[in-house]
Amino acid sequence: MELLTIGQVAERSGMAASALRYYEAQGLITASRTAGGARRFPRSVLRRLAFIRAAQNVGLALPEIREALAALPDGRTPSARDWARLSEAWRARLDEQIAALVQLRDGLSSCIGCGCLSLTRCRLSNPADVAAGEGAGARWLSPALRRVPPASNAG
Amino acid sequence: MELLTIGQVAERSGMAASALRYYEAQGLITASRTAGGARRFPRSVLRRLAFIRAAQNVGLALPEIREALAALPDGRTPSARDWARLSEAWRARLDEQIAALVQLRDGLSSCIGCGCLSLTRCRLSNPADVAAGEGAGARWLSPALRRVPPASNAG
DNA sequence: CCTTGACTTCAAGTTGACTTGAGGCCGGAC
DNA sequence: GTCCGGCCTCAAGTCAACTTGAAGTCAAGG
């Protein structure tokens, strides 16, 4: 069994067939076709899909994942060497997300019982000081942490 | 200046006026009306909005936030006592999200250079062992961490 | 031959939290 | 009186990552 049908890939990867078609349409994976037009995937697609899911878990959007995959020569499945390079960037992302959440939690702890919730001072309603800097950046921040703070008035 | 216009609340809270109308429609905030039909907000709406944003940052959906607010007698703005009770639950949420991310990061570290990305063994593409148990639960998990693992075949 | 099941395409629907646009009202300044 | 900014409502659009549905093709089995 050299090539896999979409159903087989769906079963082995745990992804829906519709998702696989979508990924192909988005250029994340590729497939050859039978004479009848049915997709045939190489086994390597499974590793590619694992890579995609891992990247999603780190918080990357599909276009970013596509770029990461496209940056590999010949559009090949990531090797150990590629993997090491990419995962370094991912770890930084995760570290920052973790830091943001920890700061949120600590702000919460420091707020317990005070009931302050100041619009500008309370860290809970204003977690943006984590890697804020300008304001337009911070794209790495998970959606849940991207709530913008108020302009700068008292609350 | 006893009551605030929607524009003033928008400026002070940093939220768009359209968002405030939306929140009112969703029952998260309330406003009185002028003879002409314009909204007038009490100052307490600012604290309520801070509460809402904090809850969003913790990862709550608007319906959950509405319930949390509605659980307060008279639909009042949370007092220090209410706040302490609610924030306990939130902290648990955050703790679990942090744990999930840390596990993801550690899985990443342990993967660097190995290039394994096994569909079933690699923690990076399969972070579900964090608070998994059954599979239908884990609702607290941030959307980014909710990717399901493959059924249970080799990769 | 005819059915069955897996596959195909393409368009449209889903979810959450809003934003945008059209069309209109209201109150104060000129 | 009329002009403007700010407000109103309601319907529809946005985004991401898919899913769902309709209508059709293909290969194998009875």
UniProtKB/TrEMBL annotation, chains A, B:
Residue ranges of every copy of the HTH merR-type domain listed in the record: 3-71
Pfam (any one): MerR
GO terms, molecular function: 2 iron, 2 sulfur cluster binding; DNA binding; DNA-binding transcription factor activity; metal ion binding
Protein name: MerR family transcriptional regulator, redox-sensitive transcriptional activator SoxR
Keyword rRNA-binding (UniProt): no
Keywords in alphabetical order: 2Fe-2S, DNA-binding, Iron, Iron-sulfur, Metal-binding, Transcription, Transcription regulation
Gene3D superfamilies: 1.10.1660.10
One GO BP annotation of this record: response to oxidative stress
